Amino acid sequence: QVELVQSGAEVKKPGASLRVSCKASGYIFRDYYVHWVRQAPGQGLEWMGWLNPNSGGTDYAQKFQGRVAMTRDTSINTAYMELNKLTSDDRAVYYCARGGPRTSLVQSYPMDVWGQGTTVTVSS
Amino acid sequence: EIVLTQSPGTLSLSPGERATLSCRASKSISSSSLAWYQQRPGQPPRLLIAGSSSRATGIPDRFIGSGSGTDFTLTVSRLEPEDFAVYFCQHHTISLWTFGQGTKLEVK
User: Fold this and answer.
1) A44:B95 CB<8 A
2) How many angstroms separate the CA atoms of A74 and A24, rounded?
């Protein structure tokens, strides 16, 4: 079955960098976009950006531009999200989610499969 | 930027009742770009409805999406115990995916 498995919980200090991994299985990793979405405690969902695993192309939400990088390693079917200069406002659960097929417009599809989430705490 | 406003914030109903959740967009959007998700406590969101009215794979037919323009609705025809959760609508367009703030469906 289609599955996204994320790396474990992280505790970071303010100013540090975060890297979360997302390993895909059950489908051809290169063929579907991967989105990253976060959810602060008790809050709603916030889209951070997407990655085209085939080309490595990305598009980031304006709020995170300059501070986020989404990459992939196709040899191990894994996507990564790196977020720099962490503050207490970055405390959240971070999700990866599969988007639509790369042969279609990325904006034409919602997110159909989600990872289990990675809890990130930022504290001095 | 399109803002999605969901109402009510909390909906208290009993199993077997009908739930009607609203998602209003700040400007008219394409029906094909509106999705609904369910999130149970401690779990990731689950796609319920794509394209405003198409159920995702494995979603029971008691979940019904409808609407167009600025007003969209998710109806759960007969609530099951597992349906009590938070529901989010989402608009997806180039370079921006936005979510509503959510409606919590709780047991009365």
Assistant:
1) no
2) 10
